Amino acid sequence: MRARVAACTACHGEQGRAGPDGYYPRLAGKPRDYLFHQLQNFRDGRRQYAPMTHLLRNLPDDYLRDIAAYFADQHVAYAAPVPADVGAAMLERGRLLTTAGDKGRGVPACAACHGASLGGAAPAIPGLLGLPRDYLLAQIGSWRSGTRRAAEPDCMAHVARQMNPEDIAAVAAWLSSQPVPAAYQPEPPGSIALPVSCGSQE
To answer: Where along this sequence does the record place binding of heme c 1 (predicted)?
Structure first.
């Protein structure tokens, strides 16, 4: 299996621990179905990144499930977070949006779906800590613009469209600067009542 995923680890790091450039995200320990859905999304055009599409274009679902299972079973230490070079007001805005949301504008808290510890939930909700700031900015921005999509109803696209660029920058800065707890892992299946309909969880 290590040979099969060599093309993945060339960018995402040994065991999927994350690439060194601050963009390629960690795969290790992510929920299995989340990883499987992302592989499908790249293969089928719902996510746009030409090298990933090229690698996955002709791979069947069973092959993708094996790749997802391999990385879901990898448990390696997280790197220390990079301090965000932003002001205290932006970090506080990011913290509030992440933990409480903004009900007046229809923005649910990140924690409402990704769990109080932000570790995600099995089988298909990813954790949010330990991700580079640039990656978070790019992904939330892609949902907002429609260049990243998921199964309908696309809950993340809906949430991202309620956020303005300043919200996205604040959330990315706060999340990327938080240390990852020692016991960081997805919550059990069914433990989170989602505040919005989400096709990727059905």
So the answer is: 8, 11-12, 52
User: Where is the binding site, in residues?
Assistant: 8, 11-12, 52, 110, 113-114, 156
* pLDDT tens digit sequence for 12-36: 999 999 988 878 999 999 999 999 9
All domains of the chain, ordered by start, with CATH?
2-73 (1.10.760.10), 88-177 (1.10.760.10)
pTM of the model: 0.92
Binding site for heme c: what residues are annotated? Answer: 8, 11-12, 52, 110, 113-114, 156
What one-character-per-residue DSSP string does the chain give?
-TTTTHHHHHHH-GGG---TTS-SPP-TT--HHHHHHHHHHHHHTSS--HHHHHHHTT--HHHHHHHHHHHHT---PPPPPPPP-S-HHHHHHHHHHHHT-BGGGTB--HHHHH-TTS--BTTTB---TT--HHHHHHHHHHHHHTSS--SSS-HHHHHHHTS-HHHHHHHHHHHHTSPPPTT--PBPTT----SS--GGG-
